[in-house]
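FAQ: What does a ligand-bound record look like?

Like this one, built around phosphoric acid mono(formamide)ester:
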Amino acid sequence: MSELTVNHLLGIKYLQSEDIELIFQTAAQFKEVINRPIKKVPSLRDITVANLFFENSTRTRLSFELAEKRLSADVVNFSAASSSVSKGETLIDTVNNILSMKVDMVVMRHPKPGAAYFLSQHVDSIIVNAGDGAHEHPTQALLDSFSIRERLGDLAGKKIAIVGDILHSRVALSNILCLQKMGAEVEVCGPSTLIPKHIHSLGVRVSHDLRKSLEWCDVANMLRVQHERQDLKYFPSIREYTQRYGIDKALLDDLQHKIVIMHPGPINRGVEISTEVADSDQSIILNQVENGVAIRMAVLYLLAAKKKISFSA
Ligand code: CP
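The answer part, i.e. the structure of the complex:
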């Protein structure tokens, strides 16, 4: 397979395992490129990409911008806080105005689930979802699975525990879909109030016991407690959450086998993960961030190639 089956990256649910494999193979080549002294290729020369962030971001935003620049694209950045959205302009009006300035691709993070899909139905541009509410975060899942495969050699048959706030997490849903498509087994672990009722329909195991999950898994992906999406109290206190669902060095060292530790960031150090664990040699948190640039280069390149607007390097 040499081209994607999709015209946009809206969610992992629209991808086939062959698409994911193609993205991984392309990302591996781009990872080699960005580790050279000259890190740029001309693949997106004369292509303009707009990064529209209606919600805060550090990693995703910088990672997309770097990926675009490494591919020689022209880049414009937009943040809702300093835009005319605050004056009441609609999403479609905002994006159509930006596209009138001859923008070829739009990367968008938005607090509303389905916003990227909605945009793809109403504007004539390639759309990349950089996170839509508590729905999907496809490039995060791709970089997570790529990083696991890099560390463990394969995803098929591997056991991945996703721990914490599953209810509010777009990372959890996209990870579950991506890992399953690549043959891994997934368990979600957390307090019952933070696990969605329909979760069994996704074919995942469910646990409320962190130690048992960690003994079962090869990899633990520790999610952040999303205070900004919680208007209710889902557990009695942060202290109690940490005691039951936080991982520290004593627990990690007490396990029967060595596991890999991941976190999508931003980390709440001392809440879901201790500093010693986050910075340990079992953690691949910074590898995830590094791989994010290569994965996003691959996604942008393959979508542009599908629309035949990329420059053959
Ligand atoms: N992992 C992630 O999406 O981080 P940011 O919110 O900083 O982009």
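Follow-up question: can I read anything off the structure? Yes, for example: Residues 285-306 form the longest helix (22 residues).
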